Amino acid sequence: MAETPRSDDIISSPLFLRVIAVAIAFAFWFYAPGARVTEATRTLTIPLEYLNVPPQTTVKGAVKRMSVTLSGAPGVLSSLSPDSVVCEVDARGLGVGKYRLAVRAITPKDVMLVDLVPTHVDVELLRYIDRLIPVEVAVENGLPPGLFLDMVEVIPREVSVRGSEKDLAKIGAARISPSLEELKAGGEMTQTVEILKSEEFEDEVSVEPKRVKFNAVLAEGVPKKTVPVNARILGKPADDFRLKAVIVEPAVITVEGPLPKLDKVSKVDTETIDIADIDKEQNMVIPLRPPEDDLVKIVGSPSVRVNVLLTPFTVTRLLSRVAVEAEGRSVYPGWKVEPSSVNITVEGVPSEVNSLDEEELPIQPFVNVTNIVSRRLTVPVQVRNRTEGKLKVVRVEPSSVNVIAEVQQ
């Protein structure tokens, strides 16, 4: 009877190996198409979020939404909403300027991120500020000759405009434009605030409040306006003085004329006041300069009183290595001073400080040795000031010295 082959011989036979290889290939061929039909892709459009934007700063960027492609089981992908995925850019630690920043996508755990478009975004961080702007009144189509607005009241008088620094720089004024019919009707009215700008805003600009209360009276006659008086100053005081203040009395005056002309008048100047090299305060009556437009007239006195106030101007100077003298009656025949000189800082007007002669100084440091019995002692340095108060000693370095008795051997 023939011997049955052993199992090892069967497994290692070429025929068995060929059968196994065919089985594996067939299984792979059968499984691969099945695996492919269990995976799918889906593309979502997701809003882009900016994190950690510094206070008082806004982000300006062309990219507002991201295209996100995900891979996963068809059932999982179909259940996803745009809220399931987050796309964000981190602006932590950035200042005002332009940047290219990476976008991070956060996806659910059962799906895989396949593509993100774009992967980086170009952004600009702009300073976001508030600005208070006074509300101007301009009657729609203007007022007829002989009429002007009196007792004008706008509540609130200013509006708050909020936006980027670039956009707010384009603003010229805030204005309301009541009609003549509304003014004739009288009473309080509500007007929409219009922002006048040199060019269109690039980003959102908010105005609060958007409407203001307005009340005015239509009056006949010549319109009047109160404006400040500006003192025209020429030159500088003497070197020992500086200009402290210019006081004008009265500080405001009234002008009258056509309303469009009055709107252009913001102040009235005095004639030029020359203060070159003055060393005393001045009190004078100065004529007012007529307004540039001949149709605008000054109401009342054509002159004002002007007080020019001065304040002394001081400088300091360092006097180096000024010898210290020992003064006073003592039981010892003489004294030695260590260190023998000090540095003195003085303060005064330039003319006095600059005229100091270091060969004959009116400021003398000394130490008083009267009644000192110790052979060695530390004493304070005193200063004799013969400038009659024109100079002030502000510092002595060192402020104390050693005095050593000279004893005869």
What's a quick, concise take on this entry?
With 409 residues, the protein is mostly beta strands.
Describe this protein's structure.
The chain has 409 residues and is mainly β. The chain folds into four domains: 79 residues, Beta Complex (RNA Polymerase Alpha Subunit, Chain A, domain 2); 93 residues, Beta Complex (RNA Polymerase Alpha Subunit, Chain A, domain 2); 89 residues, YbbR-like domain (RNA Polymerase Alpha Subunit, Chain A, domain 2), CATH 2.170.120.40; 92 residues, RNA Polymerase Alpha Subunit, Chain A, domain 2 (Beta Complex). The protein is built from seven helices and 33 strands.
Task: Note the topology.
Layout: H1 7-11, H2 14-37, E1 40-51, E2 57-61, E3 65-72, H3 74-78, E4 86-90, E5 97-102, E6 104-106, E7 112-117, E8 120-137, E9 147-155, E10 158-164, H4 165-168, E11 171-176, H5 180-185, E12 189-192, E13 194-197, E14 206-208, E15 211-220, E16 224-230, E17 233-234, E18 241-249, E19 252-256, H6 259-262, E20 268-269, E21 273-274, E22 282-287, E23 297-299, E24 303-312, E25 315-323, E26 325-327, E27 334-338, E28 341-348, H7 350-354, E29 363-368, E30 376-380, E31 382-385, E32 391-397, E33 400-406
Parallel strand pairs: 1-4, 8-11, 16-20, 17-21, 26-29
Antiparallel strand pairs: 1-3, 2-8, 3-7, 4-6, 5-8, 8-10, 9-15, 10-14, 11-13, 12-15, 16-19, 18-24, 19-23, 22-24, 25-28, 27-33, 28-32, 29-31, 30-33
